Every structure is written in structure tokens, then in C-alpha cells.
Amino acid sequence: MKDKFISELGEKKLIKILLDKRDSSLDISDMNIKDSYHDDAALIKNSSEYTVVSTDMLIEHSHFPKEMTSYQRGQKVVTVNVSDILAMNAKPTSILISMGLPPTMTLSEYEDLTDGILSKCEHYGITLIGGDINENSELILCGTSIGIADKNVKLQTNIEEGNLIGVSGNLGSPAAALDLIYLNDISNENNDRIIESLLEPTLPIDTSEVLREYPEIATSITDITDGLAVELGHLSDKNPDIGFEIYYEKLPYDKTIEEVSKRNYKNLMEYLLHFGEEFELLLTLDEEEYARHSDQLDIHIIGRTNDSGKITLIKEGKEENISVRGYEHLKDD
Amino acid sequence: MKDKFISELGEKKLIKILLDKRDSSLDISDMNIKDSYHDDAALIKNSSEYTVVSTDMLIEHSHFPKEMTSYQRGQKVVTVNVSDILAMNAKPTSILISMGLPPTMTLSEYEDLTDGILSKCEHYGITLIGGDINENSELILCGTSIGIADKNVKLQTNIEEGNLIGVSGNLGSPAAALDLIYLNDISNENNDRIIESLLEPTLPIDTSEVLREYPEIATSITDITDGLAVELGHLSDKNPDIGFEIYYEKLPYDKTIEEVSKRNYKNLMEYLLHFGEEFELLLTLDEEEYARHSDQLDIHIIGRTNDSGKITLIKEGKEENISVRGYEHLKDD
């Protein structure tokens, strides 16, 4: 069957395609809530102390490498938005997604995009509860994620001296993946894992579940989407009396990226500290509580907090300062 | 002082400008919630039975006529999004706004845009609690509005036979305004009110407050952003046994638009029924309860529901069918 451009269908049919798929997977007994998903706004029944919300917009030229399929683009907008909910120690429950779609997008690309969105919602156990469709020259996906939390919500302001600093997984792979794509070196099987970290990022939901179950483990949680150095800078701004000591040799990474960095004349440290697009969590941990549950947690300890009020990197036994920089939109230099 | 392009400042400074303004107007005693506004996600303390959420994306070429100032664009994204909360009979409380900004936007345009956003938030009594800033070739503003509701939330599915049909204000002015702009006839003072309806739309918040106070008045509420005919079509789809009889002569409009329609060789009915961009509410009302409170409500009665299952227009005593069409994105023809 010949594929169509979505401009042959129009906004209403496109919404119907998406909602029919979504509705077939809905598992909600409250008819008011079900009906609300086709009304002016969605209802959420409140059952927690707090509702947690965050929004992130992805625009094709900045956030979707051309190697990324429509399915993967759909997955990414869900992952990027749910990431901020996990960073509050909250349980993600739902998402709204507004889209700007190019009229030259084909129907099968649209189907893939929406399948990617819905599959990732299922993976994270959340429901797509709202959205909007518009026309734009390039693809724009703007999500708003919603979660629930109780008094164990984790803000970035409560870090204590003597906490362990941890990350939930490897750093630097998305940075290396972008260089591999630039070198057009994506067919090498050894690099599959690296490329996947950029094109199909996913969140550490098992770790998050344990952190919610034992809220005494973490003193703060944040995501690392702007790079480890920038995020440490934010934590330092919010906890001016706390120092952050990072052991360079403890930073976890996929060994393949060492070679990629060499071939690209890049310093491995750039990949690990300053790139971002990482969908791991950066944690500060109560040492005793972490020890009690560490067997259930897939966390790499990379440092420790102290009373210095500074961010320092210990590399080959020597102390270095970390430059607090990462990617920034709308910045000329 | 020479104006700057926002690309000379970068995302972080732009966010800081907005948040400094927002923070100076924050009036919240809960420090957890205040802190959360600078964290990964915003906390909302749950105090109602339901949280109500909706999202709408505005893109420059579709939604912002070039005559619209940056301040008015900021106002519009708030109005468009809050509209859906009022349409649920919910009380609007907060909003998140993601922006795609052209790098050639000047700092003073950005200041105007954010002032427009914050002034409209203040007008509606809501708080800006989240957002994201990206670079895009044209202006994109994507909002997610949040409100609170109890069991008196109004879905579109509970319309009864014998209800009155009402609208909260004049129809057709935004359609006429677009034609005036097309004719470049915007300097005529007589047309100021019409132009304003397009460039500075606002919501009937006083009417909404009375409807929330006396929830027995309305059996359904929806907004008319896609045009009266299309919205009646939605209500008819959701209430297949109900008929909607509209009295053409009762449709409220600013008399100035009659002349505009003539000069543009347009049928007035097109303006009143099929254009949209209207930020009024379409209501079905319990006749007795409405009569009891009508002095407090600024509502125009335009029809009545019956058991015909059809949408009919009574014009000069004769029955006509209404074609259920309005504006649609991503539609070629």
C-alpha cells in the first residue's frame, strides 16, 4: 500500500489514530477519568500528598540526530520528561505530549512515532493523558510529565556532609555516540551499545523503585541531562556549605569509548563530565543506609561530600577543579 | 541602551530573568513547594479531589499574527491553556510553559514576552511553575495548565434534554479581526474592540467563578476555540440522543462585524459559526437553576437541547442543518 503524507489526513484523523491505540491499552476503572481523556482536559484522581510536574521540549535540529528513527524520537520525548519525575523520587504516572509535525511526514512515520511514545509509556507504567497536534517545518515534541510523591520527595537542597556521591549507570556514551555518528562509524557492531545510548536512552527505573521504597537512602537525586559537571554546579549553588569530591578513576564508563575519544582527538574527561544527554541519576547517599541496601541497587559510587564548599576532582591522586560547563541552548559562543 | 539579541545571553540567563520576575511575585508559604520551583520538577500540594491538566502548543505562523506584540503572545499562551481548565468547571492554579525562541529575538522582546506571560498568570490567579527554553527558527510557546476540581467537574457527556444552550460572550470578532488585518484596516478606532478580541483575547473568569460556586447551573461546559459549529459537533458525538437547536438571531456579536463581513464578501454566519479562536465558553444549562442565578451571570442564551439527536439552526423561522466544520491543522484542502 502506498504511504501517505500526514497532510492528506489532517489533525483530527491523526489524533484519532493515536487515541485509538492509547484507548485500547487503557486500564482504568473510573469512568469519569476515562471520559476526561476525550474532554477539554484530563482528570487525575488525587491520592498522594503531592503532584509532581515537569516539562521538556525537544526540537529536531537540537535533539533528534537524523539517524534516530521516528519510533526512537517518540521514545525519547517520554524518557526525557519522565527523567525529571524520577529525579524527585516521585512515581511517574502520566504524560501529555504536544507535537509540531512536518506536513511531509508520512503516515507510517507518524505511526512509528506514536508507537514509540506509547511503548515507552508502557515501559515506565504511565498513561498518555493529553496532547495537541500542530504543523511545523521540523519535528517538535513537547512533553509534560506528571508523578505522585509523599513527604519523601527529594529536593536538591538537603545534601549532608559525608554523603556518598553516586551515579546510576555509565557516563560518556551519548557523547561518544555523537562522535561515532559524525565519523559515520555506526555500522561497527562493537559500537552498538554506544550508539544505542544516544538513540534509545532509557531510565534506571529499577533503581528508582528501590529509592522510593527506602527513602532514607538518598539525600538528593537529580538527572544528568546537561552533563555531570553542570549538575554538580547546580547542587553546589543550592548547598553552598557542602563540598563535592569526585574520584575521576571511579567514574563508570563503557571501555569502548576510550578508543572513540582517541580517534576523535577528544579528552575522555570531556565525554564523562561535560556533554550530558545522560539519562542516569546523580545521587547523594546516606552512607549507612546505602550500605544496608546496596545489593539491591545498581549504583556506582564516584565521590563523597565534605565541608569544603567546592567541587574538586581527584585524578591520579591530585586535586583538580572542575569547570562547571555543559551544553547550553541559545548561546552564541 | 542598545538592545541585544537573546543569543548573546543564552538559555541560563534567559531563565534567570524570567524566574527572578516570577519569584518576586511568589506568595507561597510552603518552602518545599517554593524550593521545588528551582528543582527538577515542581511540587503541587494536593488539596482537591481531582487535578485537571491540559496542553496547547502555539506556533508563530499559525497562531501569532505579525501584528501581535511579544507581550500579547505571552498573554495568549496563558489564555489558550487556562481556557481548557475553565471548560472543566475547575479552578486554574498553575501553568508550565516551554518555549522555542528565535535567536534573533531581542532582549526587550523577550522581556515583553515574559511580562505578558506573568501578567496574564496574575490576572487568572495562577503561578508559573515550570518551563524549558530552546532555540527555534520561529516562536513556539507550549503550555500545560493545571487546575483543581471536586466532584462538580463538568464533562461533555452529561447534557440533558431541555437544557438551555448559552455562550459567555460575543462570537465572530476574532474572525472579523483577521479580515480587518488582511485589509490593513486596523487604524480605524471603531474597529479597536474587534482587533483586540484577536490580539488580546481574555477568558470569562467572573462567569466561571459563579459556575463553580453553583455547580448545579451547568450540565456541561466547553470552550469554542475551534468554532461554535465544530464544538456542537463534539457535544453531539458525545451525547448521541440529544439534539441541539440554535436560534441564529440570538447569537451575540459586536454589530461592527456585520459591516466587516460585507466589505469582505463574507457571510456573517461564517464568522459566527465556523472560525473559532473564540475564548468564550459554550454551556448547557439547567433552565431552573440558570433562572435562579442569571442576574449574576453574563451568559447569552442561544438555543435549547431536545431529543432529536441532530444539530439544527433556526434562522428566520426556518430550520437549517449546521455543517460541522472549522479550522484544522495539517489539512491540505
Task: Give a topology summary.
The structure is a homodimer of 333-residue chains.
Chain A: H1 11-24, H2 31-36, E1 42-45, E2 50-59, H3 60-63, H4 70-86, E3 91-101, H5 107-124, E4 127-135, E5 140-149, E6 164-167, H6 173-182, H7 192-199, H8 205-213, E7 218-223, H9 228-238, E8 243-247, H10 256-263, H11 268-274, E9 281-285, H12 287-293, E10 300-306, E11 311-315, E12 318-321
Parallel strand pairs in A: 3-4, 8-11
Antiparallel strand pairs in A: 2-5, 3-5, 6-9, 6-10, 7-9, 8-10, 11-12
Helix pairs in contact in A: 1-5, 4-5, 6-7
Brief rundown of the structure:
The first copy, chain A, is α+β, with helices and mostly antiparallel strands. The first copy, chain A, has 2 domains: 9-149, 60s Ribosomal Protein L30, Chain: A (2-Layer Sandwich), CATH 3.30.1330; 164-321, Phosphoribosyl-aminoimidazole Synthetase, Chain A, domain 2, CATH 3.90.650.10. Helix content of chain A is 36%, strand content 24%.
Account of the 3D structure:
Two copies of one chain form a homodimer. With 333 residues, chain A is α+β, with helices and mostly antiparallel strands. Chain A folds into two domains: 9-149, PurM-like, N-terminal domain (60s Ribosomal Protein L30, Chain: A), CATH 3.30.1330.10; 164-321, Alpha-Beta Complex (Phosphoribosyl-aminoimidazole Synthetase, Chain A, domain 2), CATH 3.90.650.10. Chain A is built from twelve helices and twelve strands. Chain A has helices spanning 11-24, 31-36, 60-63, 70-86, 107-124, 173-182, 192-199, 205-213, 228-238, 256-263, 268-274, 287-293, and strands spanning 42-45, 50-59, 91-101, 127-135, 140-149, 164-167, 218-223, 243-247, 281-285, 300-306, 311-315, 318-321. In chain A, strands 7-9-6-10-8-11-12 form a seven-stranded mixed beta sheet. A four-stranded mixed beta sheet of chain A has the order 2-5-3-4. The longest helix of chain A is centred in the middle third of the chain and has 18 residues, at 107-124. Chains A and B meet through helix 1, helix 2, strand 1, strand 2 and helix 4 of A and helix 1, helix 2, strand 1, strand 2 and helix 4 of B. Strand 1 of chain A pairs antiparallel with strand 2 (50-59) of chain B, so a sheet runs across the interface.
